Every structure is written in structure tokens, then in C-alpha cells.
Amino acid sequence: MTQDEMKKAAGWAALQYVKPDTIVGVGTGSTVNHFIDALATMKDDIEGAVSSSEASTKKLKELGIEVFDLNSVDSIDVYVDGADEINDRMDMIKGGGAALTREKIVAAVAKQFICIVDNTKQVPILGNFPLPVEVIPMARSYVARELVKLGGDPVYRQGVITDNGNVILDVYNMQILDPKVMETKINAIVGVVTNGLFANRGADVLLVGTPDGVNTVTL
Ligand code: 5RP
């Protein structure tokens, strides 16, 4: 089974968490693209979606799913998104697709976070995947120096501008032993919009695509 087939299995499995007549929070990435394909099969049963990126918005609209502005929505029952890494505590690194800030905002509003991954994303300790940090452009060098003080090796993601008009620093070699503390510390650096640690608001349900089917994990 290929990695993409495992992503697809996880993406389609998330459909069971979508309730009729609700607005669904939709993440970003190749795994989520499979979920959006699945969601399109029940587009007449849901009110619509709130999207975490321009890319997901485009795909949702192409498939005939109405996309709402988050400011016009009171609550979201479920948010479905992928991850670059996830540990046993359901803490994640996200932002490989540079959509971390909007993802974190929609996740904050949602009652339940359903994380969909293939089995390569499960790790004992976060940090092998470089941690994305979204930064206001004029603060890039300052934030990079502060990230070095925290023990990381930040690398400017050349040529990438986020949907919010900012830049991304990918932090290599970060020892992330306490993801909640690290998330808070990095977010306290002036000029950081947010970082890709999703620990203070982690996943509630994890659906892992494997060659033997989809495993469901809850805490
Ligand atoms: C985008 C993300 C994605 O969820 C993450 O990068 C996983 O992507 P994929 O499903 O393509 O492996 O955080 O910002």
C-alpha cells in the first residue's frame, strides 16, 4: 500500500465524524484533499465548511461545498486536518504546507479535532520534522536569532509567502521534550505569528491509515 493510499483511507474514515446540518472545519494538505473528496459526497447534507487555506477553499468550492467566513460562524463541531508529526499525547507538528496559523485558529474554535495521517507521521518525540514558525517579514532575522537561543537551527523557507502575507522559518534540530511549554515560549517571541506546535490544543481523535486499515486512537 502506498503512503497516499494510507492518507486516502484516513481521509475517508473522517467522514463518519461529520454530522448533518453542520459547518465542518477543514484543514490543509494532501491528506485533507482526500477528506474534501469524501466530504463532497455529503455536500447536500451539510451546511458547508470553514477553510484553513486558500488552497482548501479552492478545492471545496470546485466540488460545490459552500465556504463560510469564520467570523460568520458561532461554532464548529469538528475540525479535520492532517499533521507532519503526532506523538502519543496527540501533540502535533503542523505547517509543512505553511497553513499553520489559519489551521490553529479554526482548530481553536472547533469542539473536536480529528487528525488524519498515514502511519509514517506517528513519532515518539516531536522534532525530527523541522518546526514551522510563521513570522512577520520585518522580524525574520530577530526571530531567527531568538530561535537559536532556544536551541534550534532556523532556516528561511525561500519563496514561500503565507496566505496571511508572512514568511516561514523552519526550525531544525529542536529538542521538543515539552511541546506545550515550547509552543508557548516560541509564540512569546515578538514578531512570531504562531508556530506549528499544536500541543495546547492537540487532537481529540487520531485516524491512522495503515496497510491493515485505519486505526482509531483517543486519549
Ligand atoms: C499544512 C499542514 C498539513 O496538515 C501537514 O503538512 C500534513 O500534510 P499532508 O497531509 O500533505 O502530509 O499542517 O500546513
Write the SSE topology.
Blueprint: H1 3-13, E1 23-26, H2 30-40, E2 48-51, H3 54-62, E3 67-68, E4 76-81, E5 85-86, E6 92-93, H4 100-109, E7 110-118, E8 131-135, H5 140-149, E9 153-156, E10 167-172, H6 179-187, E11 192-195, E12 197-198, E13 205-210, E14 213-218
Helix pairs in contact: 1-2
Protein name: Ribose-5-phosphate isomerase A
Family: Belongs to the ribose 5-phosphate isomerase family.
Function: Catalyzes the reversible conversion of ribose-5-phosphate to ribulose 5-phosphate.
What is this entry, summarized?
With 219 residues, the protein is α/β, with parallel strands linked by helices. It has helices spanning 3-13, 30-40, 54-62, 100-109, 140-149, 179-187, and strands spanning 23-26, 48-51, 67-68, 76-81, 85-86, 92-93, 110-118, 131-135, 153-156, 167-172, 192-195, 197-198, 205-210, 213-218. The mean pLDDT is 98.
Q: Poorly predicted ranges (pLDDT <50, ≥5 residues)?
A: none
Could you give the count of β-strands?
Answer: 14
Multimeric status of the protein:
single chain
The geometry reads as globular
Main sheet summary: 7 strands, mixed
* Euclidean distance between termini CA atoms: 27 Å
Overall helicity: 25-40%
Bound molecules: ribulose-5-phosphate
Biggest sheet: strand arrangement? 3-2-1-4-7-13-14
Radius of gyration: 17 Å
Mean pLDDT: 98
The helix/strand order is HEHEHEEEEHEEHEEHEEEE
* Helical segment count: 6
Helix/strand-derived class? alpha/beta
Strand content: 25-35%
